[in-house]
Amino acid sequence: MGNRQKTKDKKNNIFGTGINGYSVISHRLLPIAYCLLFILSSCTPAQEKLYKETRTSMYTIVSITVSSDSEEKAKTAIDRAFNELDRLARLLNFYSEDSEISMINRNAGDKPVKVSPETLEIIDKALYVSENTEGAFDITVGPVVRLWDFQNKVLPDEKLIKEKLKLVGYKNVIVDKEKSKVFLKTKGMQIDLGGIIKGYAADKAVEVLRKNRIKSGIVAIAGDIKVFGKRPPTGSDNGLWNVGIQNPRQKSDKDEIIAAIGLSDMAISTSGDYQRFFIKDGKRYHHLLNPRTGYPAYGCQSVTIITRDAAFTDAFATGIFILGHQKGMDVLKRLGFDGVIVDKDGKIHATEGIKDKIKWSNGVLE
After folding, report:
1. Those residues with Cβ within 8 angstroms of residue 178's Cβ, 6 or more apart along the chain or in another chain
2. Measured between alpha carbons, how far is 85 from 208 in angstroms, rounded to an integer?
3. pLDDT higher at 235 or 337
4. Which of 207-221, 222-236, 316-330 has the weakest average pLDDT?
5. Looking at beta carbons, which pairs linking 347-355 to residues 24 or more positions away fall under 8 Å?
6. Which domains does the chain possess?
7. pTM for the model
8. Helix 197-211 vs helix 310-323: crossing angle, to nearest 10
9. Is residue 51 within 8 Å of 6, Cβ to Cβ?
10. Fewest beta carbons within 10 Å, which of 72, 83, 132, 318?
11. What's the whole-number mean pLDDT along residues 25-38?
């Protein structure tokens, strides 16, 4: 892969030295991410430089990298992309009383709420994922998720879980596209877009970068990554942006990958049981909850999804994790998405479309 790329913003660089000299996103700086992916890169020609800026946005760590022949053009585009992320965060934030999501939640069981095109679009996408994962992905599961205290390693009361499950059900989210309104049928229901908002925002940030004459780059919102265009190649390099997938059962503090793949104009997200979890009485409790039971799903260790729409990679990674690898692979095949699933026993399953494009760290696909 050659030497690691040198980015313009050294002070705010969150890339550290990883396996074989690759650059990786440090998981120590991404404590609330649903996934962790590594961006692996190499040097670019003199006429094109990589400019990268890392900020706190979308309530997490966001890194935007662009390839440009002009520092001024790169800075302007990156600033505008971050402005878009901040705008979306205000619009879609569950925790802000002024957001449209909070307005919808306050009026649950009472009346529909008129919303912006963006709010309508992301909710519509979320419901599409729910329909295609048998409800395994559900933006109304938030009241149950908030019963779990992963920081203090406390199991919620079973009666409380059963009570909150009565408020869960994506089919009770009514979207009126013609009137641009959203209605929650049951009083007390709540929408929380945490499982799709980062991917959706990455899509929108890339749109802004393209409009500002940036032809290639990366937007990484926590572990949800959208790459576009091709990195200027060097020598025999094909110019693809190389991304690695974390080992869900790495045995040390060092970042370990199980595979790497070159991408262009694609998005990639991973959901795993290793980001937010605790062990109690020998059992792993993690944040990926089954909306039907209110308890963690145990069919997989991690799920990585690759397709063009980052909102879908983000949400389907969670939904397919909860479905399990067999049903999950069926969904990927039916929708034409690519993916890598590490099942509960640690066996790796990959879709046919990427088997010959992935470089496996151990050289073997189980």
Report:
1. none
2. 10
3. 337
4. 222-236
5. 348/258, 348/259, 349/325, 354/261, 354/306
6. 15-88+198-360 (3.10.520.10), 100-184 (1.10.3980.10)
7. 0.87
8. 160
9. no
10. 72
11. 35
